[in-house]
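Annotated sample (chain length 306).
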Amino acid sequence: MKSKASPSTTFLLPAMLSAALLGACVPAQRPDAPMSTGMAATDGARQWRDDVALLAVADGNAGRRSALQQRLETMGLHVRSMPFESRNLSGVNLLADVGGPADAPLLLIGAHYDKVNVGRGATDNASGTATVLALGERFLRVPLRNHRVALAFWDLEERGLVGSAAYIANGGAKPALYVNFDVFAWGDTLWMMSPEADAPLVAASRAAASARGIAFTAGEQYPPTDHRAFLKAGWPAVSYSLVGSDEIPLILEEFAGRKPAKTPKVMEVIHHAADTMDHVDAQAAARGVDALEAGLRAWDAAAAAP
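Output written by the structure step:
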């Protein structure tokens, strides 16, 4: 998530953070297994947390990119490295095709993997990256019927949405829908940015969240992140975050340039030394992923209706 702040100091990783955080990944649960109960929920939360840690302990953005590429390869995916130059900056996006009918419309699911110089970038945005990986594993196991799926991981979001804009400018495939994730780390509310309040995916997401006891809110007002590059190009896009319900109005006030009565947790964590593994809630994220998968599958199924 791109903040108005631009910290320049570097937070050094404590020596006690060891390679143990990068231990072997546990198998993710079946897509039809409920994430909210039993062993499936535990395994799904553990895998998501391992993926957040994978990036959080990496050395800089190059290290995060290398760790992410290796993780995708262990999933059996072919990773396309897409270097770009834009606005006198150089970066590398990563893309991976997951599967689905070859001639079907493209569902592109993505998040930015880069971080600012301070903190470990666990919330912003290893949490969103881990959520994309979780969905990718599910759609790899059981493909969507009416869309082919690809995963995208953007570089230089923190420098002004540079990587996602470069993908569009350099001739990247236009998706039927781009689904973005940024700050998907804790809380009781699935927060969706959608230009259309009555869009089919909004209804599907609301129903899926409600069925799992998760609050849901949707609207156009939302912090700046990579979905904006797609919308600016006239390409369909939405974005999701997982936060506390009490934070949302405060976050919107902050990004509107007003001083909220209370600083929301998000603004105390992202772009600060506090952005570490201490704040992520893997169980909450796992429930959110379960709702997202159900919502996207319902949206995909409805696409076949006449």
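Annotation: Strands lie at 79-86, 89-99, 106-112, 148-154, 177-184, 189-193, 215-219, 237-243.
Annotation: Residues 33-302 form a domain with the Aminopeptidase fold (CATH 3.40.630.10).
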